[in-house]
Q: What sequence folds into this?
């Protein structure tokens, strides 16, 4: 894969999940910022070290029973 290494670097991600999460969930999700959206969804955002850490975060969200709607990489740090 050409250029794939650029995606294995620290970056900021926005992850949208179904339902409203209390901001106290931030500690369970590696201190990511949690924001309620007006449509009844929750945006979880913050820096992620690399692809391995992203998969770890997504696995943690799955284990907590969160319903994943979208994942978006917003910027490289």
A:
């Amino acid at each position: 894969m050409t250029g794939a290494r650029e995606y294995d670097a620290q970056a900021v991600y926005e992850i949208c999940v179904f339902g409203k999460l209390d901001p106290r969930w931030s500690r369970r999700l590696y201190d990511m910022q949690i924001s309620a959206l007006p449509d009844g969804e929750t945006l979880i955002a913050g820096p992620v070290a690399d692809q391995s850490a992203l998969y770890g975060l997504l696995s943690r969200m799955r284990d907590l029973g969160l319903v994943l709607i979208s994942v978006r990489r917003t910027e490289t740090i």
